[in-house]
Amino acid sequence: MQLKKLIASLTLVSASLVSIHALASETIKVGVLHSLSGTMAISETTLKDTVLMMVEEQNKKGGLLGKELEAVVVDPASNWPLFAEKARELLTEAEVDVIFGGWTSVSRKSVLPVIEELNGLMFYPVQYEGEESSKNVFYTGASPNQQAIPAVNYLKDDLDVERWVLAGTDYVYPRTTNKILEAYLTSLGVAKEDIMINYTPFGHSDWQSIVSDIKKFGSQGKKTAVVSTINGDANLPFYKELGNQGINSEDIPVVAFSVGEEELSGLDTTPLVGHLAAWNYFQSVETDSNDEFIELWRAFTKNPERVTNDPMEATYIGFKMWVNAVQKAGTTDVDAVEQAMIGQEASNLTGGTALMNKNHHLSKPVLIGEIQDDGQFEVVWETESTVAGDAWSDFLPGSKDLISDWTAPVKCGNYNTQTKVCSGQKF
Amino acid sequence: MKPIITLIYCFLVSLSTGLMANDLANNPTSLNPQTSNELRLALTQVKLKAMPPLLMQIKQLEEQQALPLFKTLLAGRLYYVKADKRLIQMQKKGKERHYFSLETDQPLSELSKNQVKKVKLNNAVRRLLKSTIAELELNHPDPELRQAAIESLLKNLDSKLIAQLEQRRSLETQEKIRELIQVALNLFQLKTNPSPAKQIEAIEKLADRLEIPVKNQLTQVAENSIHPEVKQAAIRALTKIEHATNRYALVDQLFFGLSLGSVLLLASIGLAITFGVMGVINMAHGEMIMLGAYTTYVVQLLMPNHIDYSLWVAIPAAFMVSGLMGVIIERGVIRHLHGRPLETLLATFGISLILQQLVRSVFSPLNRQVFSPSWMTGSLEINPVLSLTLNRLYILAFALIVFFALLTLLRKTSLGLNVRAVSQNRNMAKAMGVKTGWVDAMTFGLGSGIAGIAGVALSQLTNVGPNLGQAYIIDSFMVVVFGGVGNLFGTLVAAFSLGIATKFLEPMTGAVLAAIIVLVFIILFIQKRPKGLFPQKGRAAE
Amino acid sequence: MTFMNTLFGQGRNGLQSRQQAGQKTLPFVAILVISTLLACASNLLLTEDSPLYVSTYTITLLGKYLCYAMLALAVDIIWGYCGILSLGHGAFFALGGYAMGMYLMRQIGDRGVYGDPVLPDFMVFLDWKSLPWFWQGMDQFWFAILMAVVIPGLLAFIFGWLAFRSRVTGVYLSIMTQALTYALLLAFFRNEMGFGGNNGLTDFKEILGFDLQADATRVSLFAITAFLLAVIFIISQYLMNSRMGKVILAIRDGESRARFMGYHTERYKVWLFVYSAIIAGIAGALYVPQVGIINPGEFSPINSIEIVIWVAVGGRGTLIGAIIGALIINYAKTRFTALFPEAWLFALGGLFVLVTLYLPKGLMGLWETLQTKLNKAAPEAEIEPKDEIKTGVSS
Q1: Measured between alpha carbons, how far is residue C243 from residues C19, C238, C277 in Å?
Q2: Are the CB atoms for B219 and B235 separated by under 8 Å?
Q3: What pLDDT score was predicted for residue B251?
Q4: Residue A421 is inside which H or E element, if any?
Q5: pLDDT value at position B365?
Q6: How close, in Å, is residue A421 to chain B by CA atoms?
Q7: Residues C26-73: tens digit of each pLDDT
């Protein structure tokens, strides 16, 4: 079966590559910039398939502006310089009209100069650290105020947490999120000694000492929780060690921002049950549109067990909005579409509608789910209304005065409301 | 339509529970079955935030009788039938769900997945359930459960509980539990008795206890007490506890180090044979470990209902799979590169890439789900501040067993004799009639097979994915080189000393810096003593 | 451990190939210079719709390949000529790259997202109050270039001095170099180090006042890379043909013998190692402005092993072989990862095994064998080495 899949994907990819050189402008080209090999392939291949599915669906509906959509897939191979190179290839060689891509922050940062130079349009579908707003990028994943801050509010209000462990992998997303959370918690009156911050390398597997420290930290009589920005492969050993050292989710709950359905599908979930995750989407939410989406996805991947996750929904929303914006603008011209994107609405898979704000970030609901033993989440809390994504955090000293507004008259990604100066990308 | 009904329902429930609370205040022993049923019904309706008070009401009303309900709910097995809101229990057998009546345990085979719904609960509810169950189980016949119940109650003592505990003490036969109850009474005395003399008396009795609530209470007293002599006593007791805790923390750290060392030992011991004895650099060694871990996964797939025994099957299976792969690699590639170690390095690196991609294509690039048998989860609790996790304890023992078995194999069997002969002087061994080709294949197979066994152990600690081997390859090389190539005993010492060094550095420097420091240390050490800790003697000249 | 002797029991062949390679210096440099000039001219002079137009994308890609070629050259010099297999040359490359990256970062000035005139964005955002000492002076181009050469050189000197003096050889040395690059990888991943952690350095604006995104700058960078590659190639060829080169070969083929003859072999090895590290550093410094990002991933041991593979495939012990190996494999990588992402690792892995088993001297060795067989040289066939892969695999 795997072999068949391999051959199928080979023909697909080669077919799309051959078409790079076809000069026909009869189609609208959608670039897909997700790693298909290397360490990030695990997560990103799913998103590539999601875009391909959306393209197929749109073509079934008669395409866009009377033209067929055509996906152009390239493989940046989890190699950051290659992301820039492949973005350039997509924009100059294949001349795509839009790019869906990226997962890690560094991949986005690598693409950014290229996409700004060549005035491309990119949709980035993964939760990230914020502190960025480019005219050429739409951020459909959550920024820290759409994931971390609501999660902390839940822990504080519903679970009466007073001591905080901020544990993360040592890279920019956890660093920023934890800085924001630290500032936020301090503003709520949490004392310095009630916050413990810890960073570990990628793929850290020996958690004995750290978990033992967390245990000690959590046994001082105050209710303690762990806010985890631990990434990828380091998670399973972490939860296992927690479980084995006798820490369960009632004593010290862990709320994670990088653990979703896809990650859970490869784990023995026993030690994770009862711990939490904050996302904008869970597969388990029962709505008609979600059921439909899951069914579509399973049919597309020909796998009845296949799970969906938050970045997929972000891709879905981004794609829908882009289609609507192109229809509204009547062209795929980047500047026109960019303006038409602002104010676009698309229905969430979990109910309600998402709105594209002036800062190129979405307003979305925030959900908190508990991990179940079948690798799904059970929603235990959700925000009452949608939360607007912040490009610049209100809790960081360097960026609290910055706003992003891509409409006239500001037209700036980082506009300082105090000094009235726009830095960074200029137009 | 539906929300309105719910609203009305909630209203009714709150009304009735409100009434009942009054009722209870007047006549706490009365039990109204009607209300109890209604309360239980309300479980299927209320929001999570309203759950704790509801549960408390049920507890007050039903006492012991609520235990099955609470336990089912805590286990996440409490469901209800959508149609009539009847509470039932769910039990999983493999992937299938079976439903039973809550009261009679009768199977309800007519129910399907779509007709029932789970009663939701969150961590706050779970916490409450646990302490409630503990309270209700004070008189449980199983002494371990009793002890656990009292331990979990130490955190929030009140006079009602104390009365119960005192009652329990008079019945209790177990010395340990009596002591524990005494701790609770002392704690309560310290907390509530206004007399400084009594407080000091309680403090002195508590000074040799390591329970965490004791420490927290003493800290509070030491910080807040208005009586200087009580304060003094609390500080004295705290220092005493601190000393004991630190001693155990040291033991803990040592255990962490030994455990990391055992992982390093397992990962590198196969390499110690292929690299150390044969002089072959096997860059695909990590992938041999990975194959072992995947074998565990496959074994568990084949016997989903016997996870507890799966490892016993997986160990020989992994040995065979990785060992066979090792023999194939040796016969197919390494044999042709004899005496060109750097080329072997490149070729085996190529093999490692192929094997990684192979499992990606066969098993998908996602990590695979390997379960831990129940006997490997949890920890061995020695006292409240020292507990050793079982999986690491077993792996430590396992690593040592594998090591000594291998040592015996090399020293006492004819294969071992041949292996040593070939490694010491190939040509002479050949002249004496040793089939060097066969010995090479067997040695390489043995080293690879042991790597496979290591994979079984690692599958219990970390992710089983295509990159598993990569994570250990550099560490294993470091261990073997540091210990001295060709010396198995050196590998043992190196693995444990590196493990312990890392774990003692970690609290000071953090995990990353500790790893860097250890690496730099090894680099410098090798410059000083190129042949490692225990250099091979004899014909090791260049 | 007698493998050092048996390892390169092909001394005479090596010498032969070296002489032949020497003869090829001129044509090779000529081809390199001419094709570079042609590519540059066609990019700058022709319009986009011209069939001969070379796009800026291609120019940047070629520039990247040439940097890799330079790196392969560096590895070949110590491995092919001196028998020191370094599995950590990516470290020197990355260090050179970081030096250049730091310069480019300082050039951004107040155009960063936070508008800080001195501090790079990632420092503002991690609350650094002032520039750490190792960033001082990096705003000067000459200083950064100096550092791109000195830092790798110094590291190589310290490491080599310690290792070669203690006679750490063969596989031990390889494993130590791997540990070195791995330790640096871990270190550079740390955000506390002040090199931008996992994100590394990116979003560069200009170099020496020239806009990095302008076609002319890109073309110039490419041309400079090609020029420097030619220069380094000629110098290295000269070195290897000199008396020193002969001693180095002698060390490769029998270090003890060379030592007994009175040569301070470790001195030769240390300086050659330093020379090689400096070339790798230069390659890194040229690489960063062209690809636009440097991050700790460049330190990963896998990268370093890949470099060795380029050399092995091209043919070690011949400088041209290293360059050709790097160019071919990277071209193949660009093509095949796009076409068959899943099959690429199979192909690469298979290539390693086949080359080490059947082509110990790589493509250049194969070329020589073919030449002797045909007894006639066909110089222009050299630019079509892809056919050779086919014959190599099928033979």
Answers
A1: 14, 10, 21
A2: no
A3: 93
A4: strand A421-423
A5: 79
A6: 40
A7: 788 888 888 888 888 888 888 777 777 888 888 989 999 999 999 999
Distance from CA of A18 to the nearest CA of C (A): 10
A396, closest residue in chain C (CA to CA): C125
How far, in Å, CA of C314 to CA of A251, rounded? 60
What is the CATH class of A145-285+367-387? alpha beta
In B, residues 429-468, which contact C (CB 8 Å cutoff)? none
Q: What is the pLDDT of residue B527?
A: 85
Least confident of A12-16, B390-394, C264-268: A12-16
User: What number is the average pLDDT over the span B410-423?
Assistant: 88
A380 to chain B: nearest residue by CA? B122
As annotated, the residues of chain B forming the CATH 1.10.3470 domain(s) are: 248-374+387-528
CA-nearest residue to A17 within chain C is: C339
* DSSP string across C107-159: HHGGGSTT--SSS-HHHHHTT--S--GGGTTTTSHHHHHHHHHHHHHHHHHHH
Q: What's the whole-number mean pLDDT along residues A5-30?
A: 54
Q: Distance between CA atoms of A10 and C346, rounded to whole angstroms? A: 14
> Is the Cβ of C193 closer than 8 Å to some Cβ of chain B?
no
pLDDT in tens, B264-289: 999 999 998 888 778 788 889 999 99
Cα radius of gyration (chain B)? 31
pLDDT by residue (tens digit) across B37-68? Answer: 788 888 888 877 788 888 888 888 877 788 88
Could you give the CA distance from residue C12 to residue C10 in angstroms, rounded to a whole number?
A: 6
Q: Which two tokens stand for residue C323?
A: 């360059």
> What are the structural domain ranges in chain A?
2-143+287-364, 145-285+367-387
Range 67-106 of A in CB contact (< 8 A) with B = none
Residues of B in contact with A210 (CB under 8 A): 511
Overall fold of domain B248-374+387-528: ABC transporter involved in vitamin B12 uptake, BtuC (1.10.3470)
- CA of C346 to nearest chain B CA: how many angstroms apart? 5
Sort residue A104 into left (φ over 0), alpha (ψ -120 to 50) or beta.
beta
Search chain B and give the residue with CA nearest C350.
B350
Q: What b-and-e string marks burial along A5-36, b requiring 16 or more CB atoms within 10 Å of the CB?
A: eeeebeeebeebbeebeeeeeebbbbbbbbbb
Residue in C125, C190, C197 closest to A131 by CB: C125
Helix, strand or coil for residue B362? helix
* Range in A4-8, B228-232, B339-343 with the lowest mean pLDDT: A4-8
What strand order describes the sheet that includes A68-74? A68-74, A27-33, A98-101, A122-124, A137-139
Q: Of C172, C186, C255, which has the smallest distance from its Cβ to B516's Cβ? A: C186
Same CATH fold assignment for domains A2-143+287-364 and A145-285+367-387 = yes
Amino acid making up residue A95: E
Cross-chain residue pair B463–A267, CB shorter than 8 Å: yes
- The percent of residues above 70 in pLDDT, for chain C, comes to 88
A-facing residues of B in 324-343 (CB < 8 A) are none
What CA–CA distance (Å, rounded) separates B88 from B81?
7
Question: Which chain C residues in 106-125 lie under 8 Å from chain B, judged by CB atoms?
Answer: none
Predicted local confidence at residue B10, as pLDDT: 47
The answer on pLDDT for B109 being more than 70 is yes
Residue of B nearest to A243 (CA): B378
Among B340, B350, B513, whose Cβ lies nearest the Cβ of C351?
Answer: B350
Residue C191 DSSP symbol: G
Q: Could you tell me which CATH number the domain at A2-143+287-364 has?
A: 3.40.50.2300
